[in-house]
Amino acid sequence: MAPGPGATQLGANQPSVVRRSATLLRLLAAREPEGAMTTRLATAAAIPRPTAHRLLSALQEEGLVERDNGTGAWHLGPECFLLGAAATTRHDITPAARAVVLRIAQETGESAFFSIRRGDETVCVLREDGSFPIRSHVLHEGIRFPLGVASAGLAILAFLPEARREAYLARVDLTAGYGEEHSAAALRERVSATRELGFAVNPGLIVVGSWGLGAAVFDAHGQPYAALSITGIEARLAPPRQAELGRLLLEAAHTLSSGSGPASGSS
Where does the record place the IclR-ED domain (predicted)? Predict the structure, then answer.
C-alpha cells in the first residue's frame, strides 16, 4: 500500500526534524543545570522560535525534555538519563578517567576536568573541584567548545594529524564567537607552542583571569580522543608552577592513553 501524502511529506522533512531536535538536546546539555528559555535555544540553533517550541513540546511528550513551570526554562528530561545509562555499556570511558581527575584535583587543589572529542567539539564529561577556594566556572559537565577553544580543545587540535587540523582551520571561523585570539593564524601559533611544551595553555582567553592547562589523551591508534585539563586563577597556573602542573597532566594523560582509550578515535 502506497504511503499517503502526509507520510511522504514527513519522510522528506524527517532528517531536518531529527537534526534540529538533536541540536536542541545538545544545547540543553550544555546549559544544565540552569536550563534555557525557548528564545535562547531558538537563537542558538538558528531556527524560528515557533519551530523550536514545537520541537521542544514534542520532545517533552517523549520525556526527552521537561519544562520548569515556574521559570519556563527547558531542561533535559528523565528519558535522556535512561538512554545515557543504556549507552554506557558501549561508550563509558569515565570510570578510569574519574579516578585520574579526582587525583589531579586533590594533588593540585585546582578544578580538574575530563573532556572528550565529539566531531569538531570537545564535551566536558567529568569535573572535580580541588581544595583551593577560588574556582573557575567556565567549564562544567555537558558544556561544549569548538576544537581550539579552551585548553582541552587546543590540546586535542594540536595533536591531530596536520592535514585534518588544517582542514578544520580552513572551514571554521571562531573569531565571531571567541575573538581574534582564535583566528586561524593565532591558533596555529598556539598549536606550535602546545606541541613544543606537550600541553596546552589557555591564558585567560575565555574569561579574563581564568587560566587553563590541558593534555591530550590518545587512543590505541595514537589519535587524540580526549583531554585532561585544570583551571584556576592566573597566579596559580602561571610559571613557574605551570611546568610542574603540565608534567602532572602529561603523566596522567599517559596513564589513560595506555590503559583506557577506545579502539579508534572520534570522527
Answer: 79-262
